Structure prediction request, 495 residues.
Amino acid sequence: MNTTVSRSDDVPAPAPALTPIAVAPGDGIGPEIMAATLRILEAAGARIEPRPVEVGQEVYLRGVSSGVAPDAWEELRRTGVLLKGPITTPQGGGYKSVNVTLRKALGLYANVRPARAYAPFVATHHPQMNLVIVRENEEDLYAGIEHRQTDEVYQCLKLVTRQGCERVIRYAFEYARAHGRRKVTAMSKDNIMKLTDGLFHRVFDEVAREYPELATDHLIIDIGAARLGARPENFDVIVTLNLYGDILSDIASEVAGSVGLGGSANIGETVALFEAVHGSAPDIAGQDKANPSGLLNAAALMLTHIGQGDVAARVQNAWLRTLEDGIHTGDIAGEHTTQRVGTQAFADAVIARLGQLPERLPAVQGEAASRIQVQLSDRPRAEKVLVGTDVFLEWTDADRQPDVLGERLQRAEGENWRLDMISNRGVKVWPQGLPETNRSDHWRCRFLWRAEGVPTHADVLALLTRVAEEGLDFVKTEHLYTFDGQPGYTAGQGQ
Ligand code: NAI
Prediction:
């Protein structure tokens, strides 16, 4: 993709530097849409050097359970950019999702998914919508740390770090600033999850103060998702935690009417991955039917990322013009379709329009924005003091009467610990619980240190020994700390 331009004195200009990018065509429709996309990029004058890497089904079937060929990692590190086709995750045990593997291994902390309407050429009830969802990509319930703790109770750990929150929130603000967006909305459920989601909200408020030119607000995720579905045109940039972002981005693509058209970026500190939102569509693979638009829009995000916003705009404007001219693949064909085409003919139509602008849809401006670097703030570590322990038990004796359990646990207190309360699925049942509360076989028993000084690990072990000697089956413990004097745990009443 190297075009040499002649100057008037006929001395050839030096070839513009080409940016190497790793390219993984993917599975199913991946190779077709990747070929179409790369043809368009080449014709648009993208200053890139595609370097193939092996990722996907063939790699899995060779016995590499991550689906990523060992030498691909080096290429990813070298180029720092991966344009990836969709990957089929084989059914059955032993195979991990390539996407999750790449995200975690490469520290791709922010998932950026623009969702906009292309009405009337693609049907939607919200022709004005044009928003971007920035989703935290590495933490939250996606850590995949799950346990069955008792016969009845299963647990999934939600892990949220201050750095993870700050990184993605700063990215969202920097993105808004770089892309001329006006408002950043955070969504969380901090009315219920006061520590984890509360941290996200607090960091959002802190970072927001550094961007006074941007409007900001915070919505509880349930009403936020409802409003996104009902009035998406009121949103601009949304930043949120991993699971909420996963759900919101599908809602946004769906109401934009463009699930098949969306591209997404997964941004890390040193590597970024660009891909379509859809999967490998095995049902239409190899038939020249697939719409390459999702991957093409991902490639446009990639071009902006590597500082070739001019080429990105050229590609997207030609693509918008193609949509306007009614040249559509089968998945979006409708009343505005003049010609129903296959994958490669669609790419040809886009190439034929390079240099043209859309006439009705807003044209894309070339953005100078290139890689956004996020700087985390310095913070001293907090002073951590052990003040108690929650002991989780499996217990079904005595018709599950909390008073009976309370008596037995008080016998295990010893000199220095005091049983403070017992809760069942977060609801306090001792002392003074309500008889109506449903009780599982899983009891959280809170012991606080009542002696002078700070308990040691040995003190906790001594307590656990006494609990076991009482014939009680502890399945897990969780230490209670204060951090700079603030409790690092919730009261756990949860009613
Ligand atoms: P899918 O997105 O591949 O297909 C859903 C439906 O949309 C199918 O009817 C398909 O024909 C259609 N479709 C998807 N992309 C299209 C396009 N570009 N043009 C025209 N029609 C298109 O979702 P599905 O069937 O749930 O997943 C298939 C495979 O893809 C699975 O193995 C899944 O794990 C994988 N997958 C991979 C992703 C990735 O690599 N990022 C994301 C989602 C799924």
Q: What stands out?
A: The chain has three domains: 17-105+269-368, 125-256, 384-487. Confidence is low (pLDDT under 50) at residues 1-8. The CA atoms of residues 124 and 257 lie 5 Å apart.
